[in-house]
Amino acid sequence: MCSAKGTSHETFPVTVSREYPPAPLVAVAAVVVDKEGQILMVERGRPPSQGMWALPGGLLDLGEPVRAGVAREVLEETGAEIEIVDLVDLFEPIHRDTAGRIRYHYVVIDFWAHYRGGDIAAADDVDDVAWVLVTRLDDLPMEEETRRVVHKAHALWRQANGPEGAAPSSRAG
Q: Which of 7, 42, 76, 117 is the most buried (most CB within 10 A)?
């Protein structure tokens, strides 16, 4: 991986347990938007959100810059190459077991990004991947916080790409 200054540095995957972790785990995710305004979504293949639709992303490696981590995770899970635009929000899913103990605790840093290419396919810990219209988000099982982050990022995309939603260079006039 490369640092923000471009110097190559080794990174290390986080090896602590995701279930009942000793501390919150830092993760990254991206609302990847294509030229038509569709969102790249993944169906999670592992707990805690197995079977739910989510944003592509995962744990940040030790020593890995956040933006490099989100680009790596999106590529690993979906095959998509992205251009990160900006930070959108922070998402903090905390799941407790029936005894009230913290079973999962993530701090997810959410970005929005433009899709730049790549062959889209489910990989890594993902069961499925799909381009989804924002108007169809309610058709998919997902955390309400994920829907909120997607809507917020999509609004930023619309604002950046003009009222018709198309990139300014591709609009007539």
A: 42
